[in-house]
């Protein structure tokens, strides 16, 4: 199902600095096929939101997909997330907060700038635009240095980073301190479908951002436009 990175701890400093870590081909071919089969069954249950996205929350996923529920709590995956992040990652107690399906499938569908309510978010790509110019890119602003406060953050538009992903890829995000968005789809006929896993972490071990930042908030700092 998963092809976990070797020597995950060596990537920890990069994650701490960027608040983001690309995990290419985290899903094996068999794992991607199995999750896609579940996704195609679940997609009919998604709800179109006012923010130009189709969503399915964790409670329905847990009820309808034992496969996704098992993968979320996989001990090897949790151990890897701990090594990558340097945090004591743990499953959330509330089933509706653990995982979500998020689908962009119409032109101009997007995900507006925001931070998340949980420290660690793992995003698995089931479908993705083949070319960066088709949109659906992750844009993110690395969190301010630990202990440095947020004065002048971000200092320049150059701090907005962009990443393109392929089906089977994943990324780990420091969700509570890394402002991020998904750029609009540029044309009809392209889709972006992701499965997101959210995890708790012990506050005393948080890195890369201020403590006590557990509550999600929406916002748009200078340099991260609402549209691209």
Automatic annotation (TrEMBL):
Residues 208-228 are annotated as: Disordered. Residues 209-218 have a biased composition (Gly residues). It comes from the Bacteria. Residues 219-228 have a biased composition (Low complexity). This is Fe2OG dioxygenase domain-containing protein. It comes from Streptomyces aidingensis.
């Amino acid at each position: 199902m998963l092809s976990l990175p070797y020597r995950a701890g060596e990537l920890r400093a990069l994650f701490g600095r960027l608040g983001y870590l690309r995990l290419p081909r985290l899903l094996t071919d068999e794992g991607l096929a199995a999750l896609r089969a579940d996704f195609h069954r679940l997609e009919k249950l998604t709800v179109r939101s006012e923010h130009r996205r189709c969503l399915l929350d964790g409670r329905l996923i847990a009820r309808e997909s034992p496969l996704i529920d098992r993968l979320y709590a996989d001990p090897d995956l949790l151990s890897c997330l701990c090594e990558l992040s340097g945090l004591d990652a743990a499953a959330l107690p509330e089933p509706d907060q653990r995982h979500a399906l998020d689908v962009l499938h119409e032109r101009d569908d997007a995900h507006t700038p925001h931070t998340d309510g949980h420290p660690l978010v793992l995003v698995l790509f089931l479908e993705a635009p083949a070319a960066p110019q088709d949109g659906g890119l992750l844009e993110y602003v690395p969190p301010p240095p630990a202990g440095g406060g947020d004065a002048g953050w971000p200092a320049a538009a150059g701090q907005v980073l962009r990443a393109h992903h392929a089906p089977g890829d994943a990324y780990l995000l420091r969700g509570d301190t890394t402002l991020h968005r998904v750029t609009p789809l540029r044309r009809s006929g392209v889709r972006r479908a992701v499965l997101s896993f959210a995890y708790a972490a012990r506050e005393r071990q948080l890195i890369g951002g201020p403590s006590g930042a557990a509550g999600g908030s929406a916002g748009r700092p200078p340099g991260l436009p609402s549209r691209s």
